[in-house]
Amino acid sequence: MTRKIMLVEDDQPILDMMDIILRRIGYEPVLVPDVLDALERVKSDPPALILLDIMMTPMNGWEFLEKLRTEYGNKDLPVILFTASPSVQEKIAVMKDPNLGVLQKPVSIPELKAGIERFLGK
Fold first, then answer.
1. 103 in helix, strand or coil?
2. Hey, what CATH class is 4-120 in?
3. How far apart are CA 32 and CA 36, in angstroms?
4. What percentage of residues in the chain have a pLDDT greater than 90?
5. What angle do helix axes 12-24 and 109-120 make, rounded to 10 degrees?
6. Distance between CA atoms of 87 and 98, rounded to whole angstroms?
7. What is the pLDDT of residue 122?
8. Residue 86 has pLDDT above 90, yes or no
9. Residues 86-98, mean pLDDT to the nearest whole number
10. Of 15, 78, 93, 97, which residue is least crowded by CB atoms under 10 Å?
11. How far is residue 76's CA from residue 88's CA, in Å, rounded to a whole number?
12. What does the longest C-alpha to C-alpha distance in the chain come to?
């Protein structure tokens, strides 16, 4: 099984920090600051899991998720929303997507590891 985790995030300091953290906990980070580029990369080389920021442009994380699930047919690819927004949990509950989780920013290393392991195992 691939250990690649794609982080779709437009904030460079967060990308830099998560690159170090993901490597430290044993994963191969694929850092993508452009949400449209991320969709193309998923098609050509799907990761084991996507960490997805919500607040991005020109497409937000919800729009990315919708395209990923419907247009691209990736219903089984685990996605963890990586956000500072507290209202995300309510929207996720309504979606009833078993391959969707959420981690609140800022996230601790143990929380990140547990969130990833929920979908990928140890």
1. strand
2. alpha beta
3. 9
4. 71
5. 70
6. 18
7. 79
8. no
9. 73
10. 93
11. 20
12. 35
The closest of 116, 57, 120 to 82, measured between CA atoms, is 116
**Locus of tokens 């991320």:** 38
pLDDT digits (tens, 9 = 90+) for 6-23: 999 999 999 999 999 999
Strand locations in 1-122, DSSP E?
4-8, 28-32, 49-52, 79-83, 100-104
122: helix, strand or coil: coil
Q: How many CB atoms lie within 10 A of CB 7?
A: 25
Task: Give the CB-side neighbour count of residue 10, counting CA atoms within 13 A.
Answer: 12
What is the distance between the alpha carbons of residues 89 and 82, in angstroms, rounded to a whole number?
11
Q: Give the whole-angstrom CA distance, residue 81 versus residue 9.
A: 10
Burial 59-92 (b: 16+ CB within 10 A, else e): bebeebbebbbeebebeebbbbbbbeeeebeeee
